[in-house]
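Appendix C. Worked example: Anoctamin
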Amino acid sequence: IETLLSGVSRGESTQDFYPLAKDVNILFDELEAVSSPCKDDDSLLHPGNLTSTSDDASRLEAGGETVPERNKLNGLYFRDGKCRIDYILVYRKSNPQIEKREVFERNIRAEGLQMEKESSLINSDIIFVKLHAPWEVLGRYAEQMNVRMPFRRKIYYLPRRYKFMSRIDKQISRFRRWLPKKPMRLDKETLPDLEENDCYTAPFSQQRIHHFIIHNKETFFNNATRSRIVHHILQRIKYEEGKNKIGLNRLLTNGSYEAAFPLHEGSYRSKNSIRTHGAENHRHLLYECWASWGVWYKYQPLDLVRRYFGEKIGLYFAWLGWYTGMLFPAAFIGLFVFLYGVTTLDHCQVSKEVCQATDIIMCPVCDKYCPFMRLSDSCVYAKVTHLFDNGATVFFAVFMAVWATVFLEFWKRRRAVIAYDWDLIDWEEEEEEIRPQFEAKYSKKERMNPISGKPEPYQAFTDKCSRLIVSASGIFFMICVVIAAVFGIVIYRVVTVSTFAAFKWALIRNNSQVATTGTAVCINFCIIMLLNVLYEKVALLLTNLEQPRTESEWENSFTLKMFLFQFVNLNSSTFYIAFFLGRFTGHPGAYLRLINRWRLEECHPSGCLIDLCMQMGIIMVLKQTWNNFMELGYPLIQNWWTRRKVRQEHGPERKISFPQWEKDYNLQPMNAYGLFDEYLEMILQFGFTTIFVAAFPLAPLLALLNNIIEIRLDAYKFVTQWRRPLASRAKDIGIWYGILEGIGILSVITNAFVIAITSDFIPRLVYAYKYGPCAGQGEAGQKCMVGYVNASLSVFRISDFENRSEPESDGSEFSGTPLKYCRYRDYRDPPHSLVPYGYTLQFWHVLAARLAFIIVFEHLVFCIKHLISYLIPDLPKDLRDRMRREKYLIQEMMYEAELERLQKERKERKKNGKVHHNEWP
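Step 2, the predicted output written as structure tokens:
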């Protein structure tokens, strides 16, 4: 201190003394903490006892250990062992943003928060700022934020229909004697008694504090709520005097602070068994009962997840668990459709004819270098196509459309129950906060809130519209970029197929289509990864340009943009293969070309459905594998590398006990956009499961297997590999529900087109009833399909080839003499007819049947969907009765409490002789 003051008195620059001044600042903070110890003594959580009681301190003191000494060792308290750490800020001493931090920290103290600083044991340049909120600050801001707290035990009542349900439960319990012990169930003896779920709650009020259940002020607000209140304060503190620059997020963006996070509640591992010694803390309990791989078959402890991570993360895992459970019937039916194809494969007349067609020579699939081929060479493809394209495909498509509706309708009911249990029914309208950025931007324009009657920042309608127009233009431009990238891939495919067919290596030359597809997928994947980086930045820029009013509006806007980009980016190639590949190629002798040069790509001789199946399988398997690796593998590798560097710096023989803030800082931070990546991965999977499910019935089964692993992967990641995220509240899954409804509607349309256009279901049906041996008899068995393959192929005269598409080979390798004719997939007249290569009558019959099927299928499925959504109420009847009963009881309790207060006041005034003769008795 003397060195600093003497340097300043000599007129030297204060920039030279910034490092020393920072050390002095830390010293002053330490002296302040010692001189004014915290009065908030938060009781510890002990093994086997996850609810703090007043006997904890006495038990510790009886064992020869005082509470502060115990608190000093676990890294969750200040040095005095009394002030619990509610939030951590991290910065580097070498960072030049000193003035902003000093102003920010000075304003933090002005708000009543207590602060203590600590240097890192690993890197002395890193400083940890520990924050604690006293009871007065917590109470003041809890009232301002309308934090709901318990105030009386719930009184439950059982409707009559519960008696009938109890009889069913008795019968089920008898059957369970034959099942394994506790299938899918949680071990209730290891879970804490979460009292807040058994209490009525109300917005906290200091004037009515006597109404709330307060056994101990130090434990009244749990750790997640305390951290949320401190974060709320930090988001509204200025970091520059005289300017409207506020918020911790901006300081994190400009690098003033490196990190900001709440602490985990200790280690997630313990030397003692949880069954014999109990859980060390809630994090340890979550690891044993939720994130451990040994409990993959059990239900999730959602109440504990909500208490530790907040309602928003709890709702995500509730939705993910519900979605996974609903996939069981869809996966079973899809597997049945696939097995039906396997069992009927030997009886399929179409695949038999393809495999036996050794005398049918197909025309080349590209110009010049592609050879002629026998139709029998595609025997394997024809058999694989039957596995996915059989008589049960239409039934499965209808089932999946209905399944999507049932899933969404029952999720609304499940969400309503969760929202009631977690007191989220009226949260959005009453408690959602305005973003600090919105307040700073429109602080000069205010209007009265029609609900609260308080002044609030206001955005003019013209300003909002202009920003939305610019944002929509940016979205449209980026979608055009995606379509342009897909068009580039299409050009690459049509150009390289002939190049690979002329390759010197026989392996590539004979598999030119496979080589083209493989390289195109690799290039497409690289383009997707590059564009994703650009999409994220553009979406962030456009969302901030719109200036959303609340955090939920910001998240919804950002989510919609990113979903549109990702969906178009990932599914454009799939839509191209399903509806455009091989549809507009023309016919031999008159091929359609790109820029009058490159011939458009054709389907395989066995049809286009096999290409769509391969695309779906590759995307679902590889993409989900890659996502799981990036979600868990990357944090594991990063955390392992950090621990390795620490061991190298301090020596493997020296064991250092790091405090909790040091351990958490070395973990990976949660995604900056919250649960966006987790939701996006599952929503895109839901799209693959429903949109093209008619072409790939095994999609629900693959999704189910992935989700069973995904739940535990996400749980393990949240508990062990990530810093503890801020506990945020949410009423539902947000805009994702609207996206799910949109995907459900789109799936009906796409499946109708897949069955009618991509699949051969309609052409086979028309042949069986109109042109086959059973025509006019009303039958459609396998015997009616005799001759279908020959009827679906047209004849082309080789001499009619264009010069640029005429193949180099003359086909003499098949019969010893040059070929005169080849076959191709289409319904056209032969070359010697009156109108050579014109459409036949069968083509128009097939086209009419396809259009009729699309119309009938869509109207039928949409009617079923609307009927189901009408018959299933959004709110269960028993929940509606409980809500009405609770509302009535709350009014009675508030009336009784107010009456009791008035009677006490009257007694006091009567005792003092101040009662007026006209006063109500």
